[in-house]
């Protein structure tokens, strides 16, 4: 596990203690990712004679970033991104412009709304990205880490994400490698 990811995750988890907030994040992050790539899926590029959608090209840097933070979680996110990019392409190929932009707006509003409700109603504190904008890119890693823990994998992450009586009390310094 990348030490940068570890430090970010320990900080991020402090803003995501409530299970309902985490559920809202799953829904919100999926909606926002799909909303972000949907309009970009309408543009085709043809490098080296290949047909590539702009959405895939634009998603590539953040996918590489997630792979560098943690190869296992990053690979899982890569698989999820492939499915969402494929779904976005399917929508673009079968929907008109009005429907496309309506779906985009609905997904974006729902995604942001889910994040706001999660933090305001369930967590009762401001979103993590208000204090640290880099947390915007950490949400998908957090959600995937939670999924891996639920499935019984990544016990190293379970220790970091496990709540204590007063919330999450671990610090990144406690996990430095010898």
Structure explained in plain terms:
There is one protein chain. The relative contact order is 0.20. Helix content is 67%, strand content 2%. It contains 8 helices and 2 strands; from the N terminus they run H-H-E-E-H-H-H-H-H-H. It starts with a helix and ends in a 17-residue tail after the last helix. A hairpin with a 6-residue loop joins strand 1 and strand 2. Helix 2 runs antiparallel to helix 5. It has 178 residues and is mostly helical. It has one domain. It has a two-stranded antiparallel ribbon. The C terminus is likely disordered. The chain is globular, with a radius of gyration of 17 Å.
Provide a quick synopsis of the model.
The chain has 178 residues and is mainly α. It is built from 8 helices and 2 strands.
Q: How many discrete domains?
A: 1
Low-confidence stretches: 164-178
The Cα radius of gyration reads 17 Å
Q: What is the helix tally?
A: 8
Any idea what the shape is? globular
Summed over residues and divided by their number, the pLDDT gives a mean of 87
Largest sheet: 2 strands, antiparallel
Tell me the strand percentage band: under 5%
Count of beta strands = 2
Protein topology:
Layout (H helix, E strand, L loop, with lengths): L2 H11 L5 H19 L6 E2 L6 E2 H16 L1 H24 L2 H27 L4 H4 L7 H12 L4 H7 L17
Antiparallel strand pairs: 1-2
Helix pairs in contact: 2-4, 2-5, 3-4, 4-7
List descriptors.
178 residues, mainly alpha, two-stranded antiparallel ribbon, 8 helices, globular
């Amino acid at each position: 596990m990348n030490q940068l990811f570890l430090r970010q995750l320990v900080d991020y988890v402090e803003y995501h203690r409530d299970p309902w907030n985490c559920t809202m994040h799953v829904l919100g992050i999926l909606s926002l990712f799909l909303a972000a790539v949907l309009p970009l899926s309408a543009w085709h590029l043809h490098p080296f004679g290949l047909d590539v959608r702009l959405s895939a090209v634009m998603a590539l840097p953040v996918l590489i970033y997630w792979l560098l933070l943690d190869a296992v979680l990053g690979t899982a996110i890569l698989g999820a991104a492939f499915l969402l990019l494929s779904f976005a392409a399917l929508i673009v190929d079968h929907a008109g412009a009005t429907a496309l932009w309506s779906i985009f707006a609905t997904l974006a509003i729902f995604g942001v709304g889910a994040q706001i409700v999660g933090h305001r109603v369930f967590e009762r504190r401001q979103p993590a990205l208000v204090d640290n904008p880099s947390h915007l890119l950490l949400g998908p890693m957090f959600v995937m880490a939670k999924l891996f823990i639920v499935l019984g994998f990544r016990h190293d992450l379970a220790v970091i994400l496990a709540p204590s009586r007063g919330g999450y009390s671990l610090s990144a310094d406690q996990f430095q490698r010898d």
